[in-house]
C-alpha cells in the first residue's frame, strides 16, 4: 500500500506548515536544540497530493491573515465602500491575462510546457473580468473608465505591483501562489455577502456581476480546485515556492484590505469625487455621511 503523503514548507524564519494527505495541518516551530532530529528542518523533496497541498496553501493563507486578525476592520458595508472595492477589483483583474501570458512564455522558454499550458488556460479564463467590474460601476451610475483611469485604492496598489513583479521574474512560479491567494479568498464569499451588497443598490440595479463570478457561486471555485490539483502535480521545489508566495501575497493582501476598510465613508467619497472630477451620482439613501451632514444632493 502506498504511504500517505506528508508535505511541509517553511514560510517564515521560524514557522513551517506541515500537511498530510488526510487533510491534517499543523504549524511547526523548529526547536533549536533538536535540529538534527527534526525531520522537517530540511526542505521536502517528495511528491505532492491534493489533500496535503491544499493544507499547505490554506495554511499559508491563514498564517498571512493571522497577523492582522486582532485589528481587522469590520465596517458596515456602504455604496461608497463598494465602489472603492469595484475599482480595486478592476485593477487586480485588468492586467491578469497579459501577466499570466508573460509568465507562460517564460515557462515555454524554460522547457516547461505543462506550466505554460496551465498559465495560458488561466489567462483565457480570466479574460474580460475587468469588464465585469466596469459594468457594475456603470450600473451604479459611475463612469467606470474615468474612475479607474484616475484612481487605484492605495491598499490595492502593492498587490497589483506584486503580481506584475512575480510574472516578470526569471522563474515566475510564484504567480500561481498569488493567484491562489486572491481566488481562494474570493471563493469564500457566500450568497449572503452578495445579498448584502445587492440590498445597498437601488431596486432593479444589477451591480454584482464581478462579485457573483468571484464568489462561491461563480467560476472561482473551479479555478481554486484546478489550481490545487495542478500545484500538487508540481515538483517539491516548485510547490515550496508557490506556498511561500501564497503566504507573502496573503500578508500584502491582508494589510491592503485592512487599510481600505479603515477609511471613513467621507474619506472614500472624497477620493472618489476627486478622481471623477464630479460628485458621485445620487443614489437614494446610499451615502450615509452626506445624509448626516444635511442631505445628499443629486449630481446634476
Ligand atoms: Fe477573475
Ligand atoms: Fe478566477
Summarize the structure.
This protein has 300 residues and is mainly α. The protein has helices at residues 50-66, 79-94, 96-109, 113-126, 129-139, 144-150, 157-167, 174-187, 191-200, 209-213, 220-233, 236-261, 265-276, 288-292; strands at 6-12, 15-20, 25-28.
List the SSEs and their pairings.
Elements: E1 6-12, E2 15-20, E3 25-28, H1 50-66, H2 79-94, H3 96-109, H4 113-126, H5 129-139, H6 144-150, H7 157-167, H8 174-187, H9 191-200, H10 209-213, H11 220-233, H12 236-261, H13 265-276, H14 288-292
Helix pairs in contact: 1-11, 1-12, 2-5, 2-13, 3-4, 3-7, 7-8, 7-12, 8-11, 8-12
Bound molecules: fe (ii) ion (FE2) (2 copies).
Characterization of this structure:
This protein is mostly helical and 300 residues long. It is 59% helix and 6% strand. It has 14 helices and three strands. The protein has helices spanning 50-66, 79-94, 96-109, 113-126, 129-139, 144-150, 157-167, 174-187, 191-200, 209-213, 220-233, 236-261, 265-276, 288-292; strands at residues 6-12, 15-20, 25-28. It has a three-stranded antiparallel beta sheet with strand order 1-2-3. A hairpin with a 2-residue loop joins β1 and β2. α7 runs antiparallel to α12 (236-261). The radius of gyration is 21 Å and the shape is globular. The N and C termini lie far apart (73 Å). Mean pLDDT is 91; it is low at 290-300. It binds fe (ii) ion (2 copies). The site of one fe (ii) ion has 4 residues, from loops.
Amino acid at each position: 500500500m502506498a504511504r500517505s503523503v506528508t508535505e511541509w514548507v517553511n514560510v517564515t524564519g521560524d514557522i513551517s506548515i506541515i500537511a498530510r494527505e488526510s487533510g491534517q495541518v499543523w504549524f511547526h516551530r523548529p526547536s533549536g536544540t533538536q535540529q538534527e532530529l527534526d525531520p522537517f528542518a530540511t526542505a521536502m523533496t517528495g511528491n505532492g497530493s491534493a489533500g496535503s497541498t491544499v493544507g499547505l496553501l490554506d495554511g499559508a493563507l491563514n498564517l498571512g491573515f493571522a497577523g492582522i486578525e486582532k485589528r481587522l476592520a469590520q465596517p458596515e458595508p456602504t455604496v461608497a465602500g463598494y465602489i472603492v472595492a469595484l475599482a480595486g477589483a478592476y485593477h487586480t483583474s485588468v492586467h491578469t491575462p497579459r501577466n499570466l501570458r508573460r509568465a507562460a512564455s517564460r515557462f515555454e522558454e524554460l522547457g516547461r510546457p505543462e506550466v505554460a499550458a496551465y498559465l495560458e488556460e488561466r489567462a483565457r479564463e480570466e479574460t474580460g473580468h475587468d469588464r465585469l467590474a466596469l459594468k457594475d460601476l456603470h450600473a451604479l451610475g459611475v463612469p467606470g473608465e474615468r474612475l479607474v483611469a484616475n484612481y487605484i485604492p492605495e491598499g490595492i496598489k502593492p498587490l497589483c505591483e506584486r503580481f506584475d513583479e512575480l510574472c516578470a521574474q526569471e522563474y515566475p512560479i510564484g504567480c500561481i501562489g498569488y493567484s491562489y491567494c486572491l481566488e481562494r479568498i474570493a471563493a469564500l464569499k457566500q450568497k449572503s455577502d452578495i445579498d448584502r451588497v445587492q440590498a445597498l443598490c437601488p431596486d432593479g440595479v444589477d451591480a454584482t456581476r464581478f462579485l457573483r463570478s468571484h464568489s462561491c457561486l461563480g467560476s472561482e471555485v473551479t479555478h481554486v480546485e484546478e489550481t490545487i490539483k495542478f500545484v500538487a502535480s508540481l515538483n517539491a521545489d516548485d510547490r515550496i515556492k508557490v506556498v511561500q508566495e501564497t503566504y507573502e501575497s496573503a500578508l500584502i493582501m491582508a494589510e491592503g484590505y485592512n487599510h481600505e476598510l479603515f477609511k471613513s465613508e467621507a474619506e472614500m467619497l472624497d477620493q472618489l469625487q476627486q478622481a471623477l472630477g464630479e460628485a458621485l451620482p445620487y443614489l437614494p439613501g446610499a451615502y450615509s455621511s452626506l445624509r448626516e451632514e444635511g442631505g445628499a444632493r443629486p449630481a446634476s
